C-alpha cells in the first residue's frame, strides 16, 4: 500500500485558502497532517482537514508554525490515521530535530483490520518525509535513541492505559477532596514502568497548562481531563520525578530538555527531595527498589546528608528511616513504581519496606500490575523463566521461538557475534556481573576482564554508557544498564555465581565479587549480610542482565559446573 500523496503549502490564511480549493477529500476524508517551523512540529489527524487547520490558525500556540504537509491516501480510514499519527509523533520525538508540540492525550496501541499491511506503508511515508528534510536519520537509528525509548509520546499498552486513566481519576478526586494518596505500580522488567512514569509527568504538565480554547480531540482516551476544572486543580501543583540511578536520571533529563512542557529540573534525586524546604504535591518515583536505606553511603558528605535529612523531617536521626520515608514525609501524593526482584545491593531499600508499602494500599484503586512485555520479544514468559532458572525451584526447559537465545563456550566468539549484531541492528553490548576488579578505573592501560584470549575493560563512563563512544568494546555493569533496553545482550556470568553439584544449588562466591557496596555490611544498623543474603542480590543482578535484550540474549558462563547446569535451560 503506497498510494499516498504528500501535499505541501504555507501554513497561513492565504496558503490554506489556495490549497483548500483542491481535492474534495480535504473536507471529508481521514488524513494525517504536519505543521512545523524550523524548531517545532505538530502532528495531527482529521476527517475535515480544512476546518481543523483553520482552527489551528486561530490558536495562539500554533500561529508560529509556518509550513503544512498533509498526507492523503485513498485507502486510509480513521484507525489507520490514528496509528500513523502516533507512529510519526514517536519518531519525531526520538529524532530530536524538532520539539514536538503535541500533548499527551492517550494514544493506545490499538489493533485494526489489515494493520500489518498498512504499517508497511508507514515506512514509505517516513522515507518520503525524510527526503523532504523532516527527519535527520533512519528509523533504526531513531528507535535506538534514549529520546525515543524514554519519550513521553508512547502508544500505551492496554494495561498501561487502564492504569493511567484510573490513576488520574483517583488523583483528581483526592486533590479535590484535599486528602493525601499513595499509589503503587508493579511490573517485571520490560513492562514499561519508566514509560508510565515519564508519560504521567508529561500528561499532568499538559493538563496543568492546557489551552481550553483549543478544540479537543474527541478520539483521545484522556480528553476528558482536558476540560474546565482539571487544569484549575493543578494550579500551583508541584510535581517531581524521583530517579535514584544517576545514569537513568541523566537520560530522562535529556528527554525532558527536548520536550515542551517538561524541564530537567523536574527530575530529582532522593536527596533533593529530602533537602527541599518546599513540600511537593506529587512525587512519582521510578525504580523505587533502588532507593536507599540508612547505610554507609558513597561519600562522607552523603552520610552527613542522610543524617541531617532524617533530623529535619523526623526530629531525630532515626536509623530505621529510609529514602522511601523521606518521599512520603515531604509530599502529599506519591506514585511508586517498582519490582522488588530488581534490588541489587544490600543498601537498597529492603524487601520488608517494599512489602510494607504494598500493605498500605488497597488492590482495587491504588495498586496496579503491568503485565504486557514491551522489551523482550520472547514475551513475558521469558522474564519469569529466567527468574525461575536462577531460583531454588528451576522450571522445565523451554524454547522461545523467534528469540535469539544461546550459550557460548568461547567469549571471543560471543564478542564477535555481538559486534556483528551491533553493526546490523545497533545497541548490542557485552554486560557482566561485578566479578572482576575495576583496574582500568585507576590505570587506563589495564584490562579488567581477560578470558579466552580476550582482553576487555569495564565501562569508561557511568552515565549513558550504552550510547557512549567505544562501548561496543567495553563491558557494562548492572549500574550502567538497569532501566535501559538493548537489542542484543551478551551476558558474562562471572565466578561470583557458581553451582554446587553436591548440594545441587546455586551458590555465591564472595572472593569473586568485587562490588564493595554490593557485599558491605550495614554497620550503621548493625546488620551483617551472609553469603545467602548476597546470593539473592547476585541472582537479581543476573536476572536483570539476562532480560535486557529485546531481540536476543547470549550467555557465557565462567564456572564449569554452572555452565553445565544452565545449558539445559538455555
UniProtKB/TrEMBL annotation:
What name appears for this protein in its UniProt entry? Answer: DNA/RNA helicase domain-containing protein
Q: PROSITE patterns attached here?
A: GIY_YIG (PS50164)
Transmembrane intervals? none
Annotated CDD domains = GIY-YIG_COG3410
Q: Which GO terms describe its molecular function?
A: helicase activity
Sorted alphabetically, which keywords does the UniProt record give? ATP-binding, Helicase, Hydrolase, Nucleotide-binding
In terms of Pfam families, this protein maps to:
SLFN-g3_helicase
Limits of the GIY-YIG domain: 28-103
The record, for InterPro entries, names:
AAA+_ATPase, GIY-YIG_endonuc, P-loop_NTPase, SLFN_3-like_DNA/RNA_helicase
Amino acid at each position: 500500500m503506497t498510494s499516498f500523496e504528500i501535499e505541501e503549502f504555507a501554513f497561513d490564511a492565504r496558503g490554506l485558502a489556495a490549497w483548500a480549493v483542491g481535492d474534495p477529500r480535504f473536507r471529508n476524508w481521514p488524513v494525517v497532517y504536519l505543521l512545523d517551523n524550523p524548531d517545532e512540529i505538530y502532528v495531527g489527524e482529521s476527517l475535515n482537514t480544512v476546518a481543523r487547520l483553520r482552527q489551528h490558525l486561530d490558536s495562539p500556540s500554533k500561529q508560529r508554525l509556518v509550513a503544512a504537509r498533509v498526507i492523503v491516501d485513498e485507502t486510509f480510514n480513521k484507525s489507520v490515521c490514528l496509528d500513523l499519527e502516533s507512529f510519526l509523533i514517536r519518531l519525531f520525538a526520538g529524532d530530536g530535530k524538532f520539539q514536538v508540540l503535541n500533548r499527551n492525550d492517550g494514544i493506545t496501541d490499538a489493533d485494526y483490520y489489515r494493520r500489518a499491511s498498512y504499517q508497511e506503508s508507514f515506512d514509505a511515508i517516513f522515507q518520503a518525509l525524510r527526503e523532504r528534510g523532516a527527519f535527520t536519520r533512519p528509523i533504526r537509528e531513531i528507535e535506538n535513541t534514549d529520546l525515543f525509548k524514554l519519550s513521553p509520546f508512547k502508544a500505551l499498552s492496554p494495561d498501561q492505559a487502564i492504569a493511567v486513566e484510573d490513576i488520574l481519576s483517583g488523583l483528581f478526586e483526592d486533590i479535590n477532596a484535599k486528602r493525601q494518596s499513595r499509589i503503587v505500580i508493579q511490573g517485571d522488567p520490560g513492562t514499561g514502568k519508566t514509560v508510565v512514569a515519564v508519560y504521567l509527568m508529561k500528561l499532568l504538565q499538559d493538563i496543568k497548562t492546557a489551552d481550553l480554547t483549543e478544540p479537543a480531540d474527541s478520539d483521545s482516551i484522556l480528553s476528558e481531563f482536558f476540560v474546565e476544572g482539571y487544569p484549575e486543580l493543578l494550579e500551583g501543583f508541584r510535581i517531581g520525578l524521583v530517579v535514584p540511578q544517576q545514569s537513568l536520571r541523566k537520560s530522562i533529563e535529556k528527554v525532558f530538555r527536548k520536550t515542551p512542557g517538561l524541564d530537567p529540573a523536574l527530575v530529582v534525586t532522593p536527596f533533593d527531595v529530602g533537602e527541599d524546604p518546599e513540600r511537593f504535591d506529587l512525587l512519582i518515583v521510578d525504580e523505587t527498589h533502588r532507593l536507599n536505606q540508612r547505610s554507609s553511603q558513597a561519600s562522607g558528605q552523603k552520610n552527613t546528608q542522610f543524617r541531617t535529612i532524617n533530623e529535619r523531617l523526623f526530629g531525630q536521626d532515626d536509623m530505621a528511616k529510609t529514602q522511601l520515608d523521606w518521599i512520603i514525609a515531604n509530599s502529599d501524593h506519591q506514585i511508586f513504581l517498582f519490582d522488588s526482584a530488581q534490588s541489587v545491593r544490600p543498601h537498597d531499600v529492603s524487601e520488608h519496606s517494599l512489602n510494607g508499602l504494598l500493605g498500605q494500599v488497597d488492590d482495587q484503586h491504588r495498586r496496579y500490575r503491568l503485565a504486557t512485555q514491551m522489551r523482550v520479544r520472547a514475551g513475558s514468559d521469558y522474564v519469569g523463566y529466567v527468574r525461575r532458572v536462577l531460583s531454588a525451584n528451576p522450571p522445565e526447559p523451554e524454547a522461545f521461538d523467534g528469540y535469539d537465545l544461546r550459550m557460548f563456550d568461547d567469549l571471543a566468539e560471543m564478542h564477535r557475534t555481538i559486534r556483528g549484531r551491533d553493526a546490523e541492528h545497533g545497541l548490542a553490548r557485552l554486560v557482566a556481573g561485578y566479578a572482576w576488579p575495576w583496574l582500568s578505573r585507576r590505570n587506563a592501560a589495564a584490562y579488567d576482564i581477560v578470558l579466552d584470549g580476550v582482553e576487555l575493560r569495564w565501562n569508561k563512563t557511568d552515565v549513558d554508557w550504552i550510547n557512549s563512544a567505544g562501548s561496543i568494546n567495553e563491558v557494562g555493569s548492572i549500574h550502567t544498564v538497569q532501566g535501559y533496553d538493548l537489542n542484543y545482550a551478551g551476558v558474562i556470568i562471572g565466578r561470583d555465581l557458581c553451582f554446587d553439584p553436591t548440594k545441587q544449588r546455586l551458590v555465591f562466591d564472595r572472593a569473586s565479587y568485587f562490588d564493595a557496596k554490593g557485599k558491605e555490611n550495614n554497620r550503621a544498623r548493625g546488620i551483617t549480610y551472609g553469603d545467602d543474603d548476597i546470593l539473592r542480590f547476585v541472582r537479581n543482578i543476573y536476572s536483570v542482565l539476562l532480560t535486557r535484550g529485546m531481540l536476543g540474549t547470549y550467555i557465557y558462563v565462567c564456572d564449569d559446573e554452572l555452565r553445565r547446569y544452565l545449558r539445559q535451560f538455555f
